[in-house]
Task: structure prediction
Amino acid sequence: MTLPRYAFFKGQVVPYAEARVGVLTHSLNYGTAVFGGMRGYYNHQEDQLYVFRPQDHLKRFLQSTRLLRMELAYDTEALLRGMLDLLRAEGHRQDCYIRPLAFYADEMIGVRIHDLHAEVSIVAIPYGPYIAHEEGAHLGVSSWRRVDDNVIPARGKIAGAYVNSALAKSDAVRAGFDDAILLNHDGHVCEGSAANIFVIREGVALTPPVTDNILEGITRKTLISLLREELGVQVLERRIDRSELYVADEVLLVGTGVQVCAVTRIDHRPIADGQMGPITRSLRDLFFRIVRGQVDKYRDWLLPVYEK
Ligand code: PMP
Result:
């Protein structure tokens, strides 16, 4: 991976090499940081970089900071300004990934989340697909269970909690899968290591409710409204049994990284005929046109980076 040229760090855009922390930094030692992840999509015809739903991403980012009792010097507007300054300095003319991070910056020993000082950084790097086979992924149900709301809240993108995702992801990849599906403590389907999940059964789209230890994904929210309003597909937010995965007509992983990924095998079982299904195909087609600014109706989901 090529390193960024710049970072938004402690309130200004600086060369990336100057965005540094010491090894005693609280968040590095105890995982007391929260992060976000957005994509910028480059539209060649318009020579424009569009950030997808940045206000929604930053709103969730600030919600995550509240879970760790962080007091930030920035609101959504200030973060948007910082992000735009950074993206204009980088000048990417290709798709990119944007990573805001809020972290307890104190260099000290002591496990806690009070009486600490939070800082913010944002970086952006060129980025393509996150998952190797997004048109036909093979997932494995993980033996690692998803962190529970009363352990570390999964609705926050809390850095320390991603050890849970990392354990599941690496074991899945080492076992030959593209990604893991994590179950809750009670054995219900939760999500992928870094993506939400949809299951299509008999024309109805199912996705776990926000009370099932999922991250409240922006892509999930996007697809719920596209399924209902554009494809006329009923969406139910309800608990999903593991065995429903195996008898599903279609399964999708969705998120900023994986985008809209067709899952065609789970635990070595083909999903339906083992090919991408029609609802997944329609959603992918619509989603990729929307994020590049090719569907007028949804242009207000996009923030153009470059001034014209
Ligand atoms: N679940 C987890 C655990 C994630 O890390 C992500 C990626 N942010 C998602 C779901 C998808 O969320 P979003 O669509 O907001 O990127």
User: Anything to note?
Assistant: The two ends are 30 Å apart (CA to CA). Residues 6-126 form a domain with the D-amino Acid Aminotransferase; Chain A, domain 1 fold (CATH 3.30.470.10). The longest strand covers residues 96-104.
